[in-house]
Amino acid sequence: MTQRPAVLFVCLGNICRSPLAEAAFRKRSAEAGLCVDADSAGTADYHVGSPPDPRSIAEASLHGADISNYAGRQLHMRDFLRFTHILALDHSNLADVQALAPPDATARIGLLMDAVEDGKNAAVADPYHGNQDAFAETWNDVDRAARALVERFMRAVI
Ligand code: 4NP
Questions:
Q1: How far apart are alpha carbons 42 and 56 in whole angstroms?
Q2: pLDDT computed for residue 85 by the predictor
């Protein structure tokens, strides 16, 4: 691979799922010695400048990741040129990302969980209205995807 992976994780609010996906990907990349750029964003602007949901901060902390200094931001047009991959957490996020993509977008756009099982079309469920267990499930999903992504990048098959 000539360009180092630069991955943007996108959900709706950028306070629950995508910060956890970013944290898991940073963690698994570091463990594998893989150099990456990673960030996360929301399709909506509800939580711009806000820290992640306290339940996401708690879940990340259980797994040795401190995300308390992350700040919510909205997906921006320049992201389509800055990142090699833009990965959506669910189908609605994917449709929104695809609708915003400019004709000269260079980022590959896809569904995060397709990294685990191509074509299965699985989504990461929104835990916002759930309890802490829902956030544990979110971590499980995004961590599986993070490990699969790192493996794919190491083998240069993505
Ligand atoms: P996220 O979860 O998209 O995983 O960050 C949500 C966060 C906030 C809202 C919805 C989903 N909200 O409606 O404010």
A1: 15
A2: 98
